[in-house]
Amino acid sequence: MSSMSPRIAELIDALPVEPDEAVAPNAAFQGLLQELSHKQVPIGRLNRLWVLGTLQAKIAAAYFAWWLRGGYASADKRQRTLNETHLKAALKLLGGMSYLRGAIMKAGQIMATHPDVAPEQFADVLGHLHFEAPPMHFSLLREFVRSELGGDPEDVFDQFETRAFAAASLGQVHRARLKGTDQLVAIKVQYPNIGRTIRDDFRNLLALLTPMRLSGDWDNLKAQFEDIRHMLDLETDYEQEAENLRIARSAFTEDDGIVVPRVFPEVSTRRVLTMEYVGGLHLEKFLSTDPSQELRDQFGHKICVSVLRVQYSKKFVYADPQPGNYLFMPDGRLGFIDFGSCHFQSDEDIECLADAERAYLGSSPEAVRKTYVRGGDLTPKQAADDTRLKMYGQWADWAWEPVVHEGPFDFGDRDYFRRGASLYGELIRRRYMRSRPSNTWLIKCIYGLRAMLAHLKARVDLGAIFREENTVSHGQDA
Amino acid sequence: MRVTAEKKRETRRRIVEGARNLFNDKGFEQTTTRDIAEAAGIAAGTMFNYFPTKEALAMTIVDEALQEAGTEFEGRLRGDETLDEALFAHVAVGLRHLAPHRNYVGEVLETALSPFAREPVCEQAQEFRVSHLETVQELIASHGPPTIRTPSVMTMHLYWTLYLGVLSFWAADESPNREDTLVVLDESMRLFVGSLSPESENGREVTDVVDVTQNR
Ligand SMILES: Nc1ncnc2c1ncn2[C@@H]1O[C@H](COP(=O)(O)OP(=O)(O)OP(=O)(O)O)[C@@H](O)[C@H]1O
Predict the structure, then answer these.
(1) Are A145 and A189 in contact, with CB atoms under 8 Å apart?
(2) Does residue A69 register a pLDDT over 80?
(3) A236-252: average pLDDT
(4) Which domain holds residue A424?
(5) Domain end residue (candidates: A129, A162, A186)
(6) Is B211 on the interface with A (CB under 8 A)?
(7) Is A147 on the interface with B (CB under 8 A)?
(8) Which residue of B has its CA nearest to A174?
(9) What number is the ipTM of this complex?
């Protein structure tokens, strides 16, 4: 604890606060920590875990509190007191959201050890909103599957494995064979009622935050929060995911070497998703086999194609290109599996993006500036803020760098990734993340894709893939 | 002599059938013993030779359903379950077999199994309680932590309280496919197992069920 305190203090010092509050941020932080540790377990649901029990989680919660306080530091005393009450209630609610335990702890851990890069990674963690449903033993699973599919899993499938082979965020994944066939399937089963619980909790959380009348970009943030809520709805609906899988699957041919699992709708429901089993390794395990550079480049290429293909041919922003969603198959094919969090672009989104791409590649500064104002959904005052526009420019340069680069780009270049990470962090620190909701997903996609490729240390000719896949703006531009 | 025994069985069956339909249509409270006797085509007085009270009759229906459940449960037991899973399965299978009677079974159980009753409401209810708790004790002995082979009276009381809580939740559960009951049951059984001994405080661990190394 003592070794991390000074760094946390620095982090807190860096947070935007009003002078009267800034006098003793550290003391206030300590106070909050103390208060949190004396909080009682909420009684809401039976046997809910108290999420904020660990030090890491408390740090994350304290950060959240500071961040919110920054938004109402200038409010009058009465409003501030009111806000404090809501804040306490919100923290209490957060404490009961046991399925967020891992996410919150991870955020706190990152902040405790690397406060300098914390904000962006923190946002990243929250952005992924990685849930953890409680594990189900087979007897619970059986009762649930029975009511969903009308029969015991052992009867509906052949060789149903009673132990899950993977955890999913809202449940777990079991392996079996389709009845009377050789087809291996992965069956993703949601923990009963978790979707409703999460939706209710988020509704309540928003209801607590809304009357706080936070200043600054709160309205925009709220819009994004609503968007996340909408996303949650989608993520808890496996029928929607099945539909996304079907669409995405149709975007690839055998030659692409990219496998989006087939869905078996007759044994799927909103809460049970049965798909073709894709045998392969996750990124970490794949890397531990010490793959050649050539192999890493080939997989890197496929990962880029996978994301750009669904974006330009199916209007999906694949917001979640992260290691859990790719499987490296022994025969060199790439398994592309999780379509729970896809954002469908509207025609306006597409047009907006295509404009930005054309402006950027056409290198007209005035046109580029206009796309920032439009894409960022900026108020006139914000649009006149040169620092803001300059930072958008830097971010765009960073994002485009691998595309405009001649030939294969080395994503393993640590300096490249670090520059992006610090830019991303700076944008969040300055609260410049305001933008059209669809951009939020796009930014996650751009950032997530580069993070994945950095990990893989792949060299990919992204420019060539972009020209090949982007039929929207590139076609007209070439 | 033989004919009488058979006839008796036949009458008994008619009473049970008639009662089941009436309970289902009108509810337990609204159904009178007279209604049941009428439906079975016997005199009201004769009814009492078979079932001394309406509760006894209803508990017989419940008991029959639960006996089938018990057979299914035993056939399904793999032996490698954790205790909370075994206890979960025991109750869950029972609820599934009671589902066709859910319309009225809540009312029946409320009366027959009332924790406030000074003495057993009827013989069947008492038998039901004893046999259910015996199974639980056996499961604790076979699946529980080595330190707790013979649970205390308090422990069994806690179990029974939780079980009645689950039953009452189930009887009124409006969620799709009554999935909320599964959650309440899961959490109740984990809570109970957690109370048995300090080592098993958190019930099972994630790793018991899911190979976490497979994923991220
Ligand atoms: N079709 C499949 N074939 C093989 N494994 C699969 C398949 N679908 C899922 N899995 C395994 O299950 C894990 C979780 O699946 P998935 O990513 O779809 O769940 P999720 O609920 O969206 O989880 P998260 O939000 O953490 O990504 C995967 O990382 C993978 O290991």
Answers:
(1) yes
(2) no
(3) 94
(4) 281-478
(5) A129
(6) yes
(7) yes
(8) B210
(9) 0.80
